[in-house]
Amino acid sequence: MRTSRKIWMLLLLAACGQQTGAPADTGAAAADSARLAEVLGAQSEEQQARYAFRHPQETLEFLGIAPGMTVVEVLPGAGWYSKILLAYLGQDGLLIGADYSFEMVEKLGFLKGEGLAARKRWVETWTQEAESWRGAGAAPVSAFVLGSMPEAVAGTADAVLFIRALHNLNRVEAEGGYLTAALADAQRGLEPGGILGVVQHEARSDTPDAWADGSNGYLKRDALIARLEQAGFEYLGATEVNANPKDRPNEDERSSKRR
Prior knowledge:
Elements: E1 8-15, H1 26-41, H2 45-48, H3 51-54, H4 56-63, E2 70-74, H5 80-89, E3 94-99, H6 102-108, H7 113-118, H8 122-133, E4 141-145, E5 157-163, H9 166-171, H10 178-189, E6 190-201, H11 221-230, E7 233-239
Parallel strand pairs: 2-3, 2-5, 3-4, 5-6
Antiparallel strand pairs: 1-6, 1-7
């Protein structure tokens, strides 16, 4: 089995505003932890093969994700985290997928022809696919495109998760303000005291800023924190649970990328 060589950085930030959560209930936290472990144990073998590198239990617990929450997952893709969240959030929760705009995807250059054209229908097609992932008692789903968040979502989310999604937004920020728009959606979508969670590949602090602009998949930690604080978020902390100290990328070294 080939391991990912990425360093993973996890940030925990809160939307500015009065915290709404009650003091932690250790009994409830233990029950949620057991429920999450059960959900993880029910995933496919292919899904579970990535647990040693992505640490979903520790990641979601660090972020404070709990059953019954409304969670916006940015760039959910083929649903690696979505499948976990749907079962874990449960029927009292809600999972909202959010993808890059078509104009941004076009600028990234990853897709061409029919694959690119299909992204115009992403809200419809992803929602339909996510419905097929839902088992009994799973959370309902909806979706929107970043920069076009429905008013009905505003102020309703307990958490917005950017899991390996911010570097692409940053790399084309100068071409259309896509990162600015995404963070504005996150700020507007979160309820007061809501959580912004980030999992991101971390660039070394001594790499040139131009290399660590997101085009190579990496961002510098301090620069990212500063950008998120500028957008109105309060930095609360980070964890190294997903860190890989063997990954020391720089401008002369291109690490293999597995998403």
